């Protein structure tokens, strides 16, 4: 089934200046939205509930994050953005959730690496628990290994977590193609980190490569996932190029391509 044109999921809560390291700053999502808002409709999500969080995380971790009300408010807004993206995907509506904080380093009972709740894991697990889908591929293209996502889904046959890790551009893109050539799934989710860009920490991928990745996922989803796919922001720290890189990914994901 052909997917609809892409939407962007965003909430001004993501601009909250909560306690974190200096590189994980509100300007990250500002720089992306400055570009994406000119091309795509923007949808505001509802925040995740405690029941949503507990699909993946322990009560202990939820309580730790809750101890900082400001941080908790933005963290559940980010998880809610991913949940909305996943729900829209199941209506053949692709989307990019421009959320903050990121999530792929958050494990069931621990958090680190600027992540507090695992946004993508919560979104995918919500669909699985509600039996909206029976299987999923999570494609993580961030510079850093998504250990939290991998920890949660380890041993789960219905979910494949493909952490693409290679410092050579051609090999990295080949690994993406290999991950998308494996099986048929009900849905594909992208943990969209942009910190592997040539002008970011990783120094590997070009802006055009993010278009290539988005288009490969789109084609894979149409062929093998009934047109169900979405992306959620993870890393990416050079605010001078974040917007154009996110736009490239979205244009690759879009149907039809947005000029």
CA radius of gyration: 16 Å
Q: Under the CATH scheme, which architecture would be assigned?
A: 3-Layer(aba) Sandwich
Supply the helix-strand structural class.
Answer: alpha/beta
Give, in spatial order, the strands making up the sheet with the most strands.
2-1-3-7-6-4-5
Overall tally of structural domains? 1
Strand count, sense and barrel status of the largest sheet are:
7 strands, parallel
Shape: globular
The overall strand count is 7
Order of helices and strands: EHEHHHEHEHEHEHEH
From the 3D structure, determine the CATH topology. Arginase, Chain A
- The unreliable regions are none
The first-to-last residue Cα distance is 23 Å
Subunit organisation of the chains: single chain
Proportion of residues in β-strands:
5-15%
Superfamily (CATH H level) name? Histone deacetylase domain
Q: Write down the overall mean pLDDT.
A: 96
